[in-house]
Amino acid sequence: MPRKTRTKHLVFQRGEYRFEIDAFTPETLPMARLAEYMAEFALMLGQPEHVHFVRLQKGSTAVVANVEWEAIPKVRERIRAVRSQNPDAPLEAVRAFHRIDNRLAEDNATGALVEPTGKTVIRFAGRKRKIELEYGAVRQPGTVDGVPIVIGGEKDPVPVHLEDRDRIHNCFAKRTVARQIAAFIFTTPVRASGLGVWRREESGLWVMERFLIQDFKPLDDASLSDVVDDLRRIDGSWQTLEDPLDELNHIRHGNRGRQKAD
Description:
Layout: H1 3-14, E1 16-21, H2 31-45, E2 51-57, E3 62-67, H3 72-83, H4 91-106, E4 111-114, E5 120-124, E6 138-151, E7 158-164, E8 167-173, H5 175-181, E9 190-200, E10 206-218, H6 224-232, H7 244-253, H8 255-261
């Protein structure tokens, strides 16, 4: 086996992800700043029990992390969700991405995330990005989905926490509404509608600061596959579609949904 091919194969076997910074070498990057970058890099990868720091690679600084075999698929999916700005991407990973980009801009640097195959999967614009204005708080109606996991408190309105996959929506509701939501705690996802307060950060990311639930409705927690099975039982063109899952995603999310299905 040629040496170059063998080296690439070994890198893939070890599951190494590299976060590259172009403005520093290991000798010039301050230790405190390195620690900040490493903490955000770890949040982007997730799977903290299965991701390990390996080394600093020479040249321009590259933080190298090794992902254990069993965690590679989850890390890969998490990174792809962040890259595509998927609405289902873990919020902590998305925020880590934006914090890294902000720090790179402050350091007059750019960065890249390289997967085990050697392919660059995310580029951080850093100093090259178009600076977005940071807006003050914006109040507007909206909805949030999730399973109720925390309800109640001393003051009215009371905290209501909704868990939506890898993120927690910290909301509030009048006690009369919270009492009704409590019937679904830990069991059934709900869609809460109300008035939210959002703020756009310099990076362009909108962050919800507060959400007052005014009404809600329980959601059917049937899986997408179950929904498609039900559709197949209905007379119509659904039964003739080659990929009904893809078509349903397209109807729900437009082109973004179709890309997600891919």
